[in-house]
From TrEMBL:
Recorded superkingdom: Bacteria
Subcellular compartments: Membrane
Membrane-protein topology: Multi-pass membrane protein
Organism of derivation: Mycobacterium decipiens
The protein, known as: GABA permease
Residue numbers spanned by region Disordered: 459-486
Keyword line: Amino-acid transport, Membrane, Transmembrane, Transmembrane helix, Transport
Length: 486
């Protein structure tokens, strides 16, 4: 049975509302990278880290706009995995889907360990593996209940993160304006410690690479679109302004840090938010920031479990994986796919516990550039599908990429530049190489699968794109294209 036939018979639940979609988009890109990882970028670039985050944010905004155009026209299970199949063929779809699945399985492992380490600060007597297991099982149970349960948890997790950032920005503004007790107003610290870009502008451009990676997660809202009551409207509303707010949060937060604390202060590299709040004079800073970072970690873990399960469901529904994982619960949740992500993620945690940081470092390096590969494929897919849509129904799209096609081409060039930069920068070269190994393994798996299908059945059957399931998709002309052959 072809993958499209299976999807005609099964359907995920529709439990997500507009408020869930907004916070999924907003919170998806706000993780521990902002609260902790931004300190590393500041240490590598100085106050000019603000520019690095701004450039990385603009690149991400362009990618998200391209993805939003496709998702609003065709809100389907699997999102960009399906678009890659339709635009570039089954091989590109297979590689895109499994790269994204692998990326978030590693995120599950990384965030599980990170969450356990934070909790262990409060209960040091309990082993790390046990704390990690409790956190993972708790959020797995949340995802197993229903998509509404996932949405509610993500809504409140993201709300806490957003409130924390808004409060931080407000305190920073009062400090810079001299309206806070004992404040040293002004922006002198941006240039007083070696200049605005003490490490040079090459370092500023190099830091764009990790900054783009920090923004990863905003695209989850397009994966969730298929489970919302009004998918086209939900994606359009969520993506129009959310990414701009994310950029404002990142850039604004980094600006506050370097305006309040000398960028070279050792504590900035460890915990930039805590360092700034200590200078401002907020009591209990360590406890506050640990609680906020734990919320961010749990939010990322929650989203990662969701993303892995829905991508596995889409992949297996198209014959790009074992059909066993297409089974849905009565509430429309792919529980087997959720358990798969949980099992693989915790196996990584156990391996880390047994063999130490060697495994953990391998995992981190092996997925560092994977999300960037996916973003590049998203951009290329948008150009192909947009041209098809314009030929079939010029002006039919409700949400469009700005200044098409030139801005789309520029986005592709920027993403390719960021990926190539990883190969030449010493700080990111190992991530580029190991992510390349991941890509080669997945491509090899596709070739093995394709040859087996040709041998057994005569020809691969996973090349068909989604058939048009609604008048909207027929009108927009993006849902009824057949994939090219592999």
């Amino acid at each position: 049975m072809a993958g499209s036939d299976i999807l005609d018979q099964i359907e995920l639940g529709k439990g997500l509302r507009q408020r869930h979609m907004n916070l999924i988009a907003l919170g998806g890109a706000i993780g521990a990278g902002l609260f902790v990882g931004s300190g590393v970028v500041i240490g590598d670039t100085g106050p000019a880290a603000v520019v690095s985050f701004l450039i990385g944010g603009l690149i991400t905004m362009l990618i998200m706009r391209m993805l939003a155009e496709m998702a609003a026209a065709q809100p389907v299970v699997g999102s960009f995995y399906v678009y890659a199949r339709q635009a570039l063929g089954p091989r590109a779809g297979f590689v895109t889907g499994w790269m994204y699945w692998y990326f978030f399985v590693v995120v599950v492992a990384v965030e599980t360990v990170a969450g356990g380490r934070i909790v262990q600060l409060w209960v040091p007597a309990i082993p790390l593996w046990m704390l990690s297991l409790v956190l993972l099982l708790a959020l797995t149970a949340t995802n197993l209940v229903s998509v509404r349960s996932f949405g509610e948890f993500e809504y409140w997790f993201s709300s806490i993160k957003v409130i924390a950032i808004v409060v931080f920005l407000g305190l920073g503004l009062l400090w810079v304006m001299g309206l806070w007790p004992a404040a040293t107003p002004g922006l002198a610290k941006l240039v007083d410690y070696g200049g605005f870009a003490p490490m040079g502008w090459a370092a500023v451009l190099a830091s764009v690479v990790p900054c783009v990676a920090f923004y990863t997660g905003a695209e989850i809202v397009t994966v969730a679109a298929a489970e919302s009551a009004e998918p086209e409207r939900s994606v359009s509303r969520a993506m129009r302004s959310i990414v701009a707010r994310i950029i404002a949060f990142y850039v604004g937060s980094v600006l506050v840090v370097v305006a309040v604390v000398p960028w070279s202060t050792k504590s900035v590299g460890v915990s930039p938010y805590a360092s700034a709040l200590s200078v401002i004079g907020i009591p209990g800073v360590a406890t506050i920031m640990n609680a906020v970072v734990l919320t961010a970690v749990l939010s990322c873990l929650n989203s990662a479990l969701y993303a892995t399960s829905r991508m596995a469901f889409a992949l297996t529904s198209h014959g790009d994986g074992p059909r066993f994982f297409t089974k849905l619960s009565r509430s429309g949740v792919p529980r087997r796919a959720i358990i798969l992500g949980t099992t693989v993620g915790y196996a990584s945690v156990v391996a880390t516990y047994i063999w130490g940081d060697v495994v953990f470092e391998y995992l981190v390096n092996s997925y560092g550039a994977v999300a960037l590969f996916v973003y590049l494929i998203i951009a290329i897919s948008q150009v192909v599908l947009r041209r098809r849509a314009d030929r079939r129904d010029p002006g039919g799209l409700r949400l469009k990429m700005w200044l098409f096609p030139w801005l789309s081409y520029a986005t592709i060039a920027l993403m390719a530049t960021v990926i190539l930069a990883m190969a030449f920068l010493s700080a990111t070269r190992s991530q580029f190489v190991m992510s390349g190994v991941t890509l080669v393994v997945i491509m090899t798996a596709y070739e093995v699968r394709r040859r087996r299908k040709v041998t057994v059945g005569g020809s691969p059957t996973s090349g068909a794109a989604f058939p048009p399931k609604s008048a909207a998709r027929q009108r927009l002309g993006m849902g009824n294209q057949r994939c090219s052959t592999a």
